[in-house]
């Protein structure tokens, strides 16, 4: 009886391990980083995932619990590959997502309906409090785009920035 009980506990423990890992504090960052490394580059209206070897500069963007980005406006040259380093100086989870205003608005609405939604796109980064995340992106389309935190309530509170690509 004891052997079968221990065996059963071992099986239950092994089966629940992936669920525990998936909800660990930095699991979504590990998942995001892995997905960005292996995902094929997909052209978006606002650019394409960048090559680490072609980074021209890094830009630090601070995210705060007053639902603001600093800086909240970036100027990028057409064709430039940039490393956006998102620094969460707050006490709650924030994210940075690049897109068109329409795309971000639609995604924010989806996030409201599904707040635990996983992200694994190269133009997105979840950042836990006190940590950093990054996006490497090539801005190969001219125009004005946005970056935002789409966590429910954050986007609506104005956690949005602008990117001018010329």
Polypeptide structure, described:
The protein has 3 helices and 10 strands. The chain is of the alpha+beta class. It has a single domain, classed as Cupredoxins -  blue copper proteins (Immunoglobulin-like), CATH 2.60.40.420. The strands form 2 sheets. Strands 1-8-5-2-3 form a 5-stranded mixed β-sheet, with no helix packed on it. β2 and β3 form a beta hairpin. The protein is globular and about 35 Å long. About 19% of the residues have low confidence.
What is the helix content?
25-40%
CATH topology: Immunoglobulin-like
The SSE order reads HHEEEEEEHEEEE
CATH class: Mainly Beta
Largest sheet: 5 strands, mixed
Structural Rg: 18 Å
- Give unreliable regions as ranges: 6-36
What would you call the shape?
Answer: globular
- Give the CA-CA distance, first to last residue: 72 Å
Beta-strand segment tally: 10
- CATH architectural name: Sandwich
Number of domains: 1
Mean pLDDT across the residues is 83
Number of helices: 3
Strand content: 25-35%
CATH homology superfamily? Cupredoxins -  blue copper proteins
Strand order of the largest sheet: 1-8-5-2-3
What would you call the structural class? alpha+beta
Short account of what is shown:
This protein has helices at residues 2-22, 27-38, 101-113, and strands at residues 48-49, 55-64, 68-70, 73-76, 80-88, 94-99, 124-127, 132-139, 143-148, 160-165. The chain is an alpha+beta fold and 166 residues long.
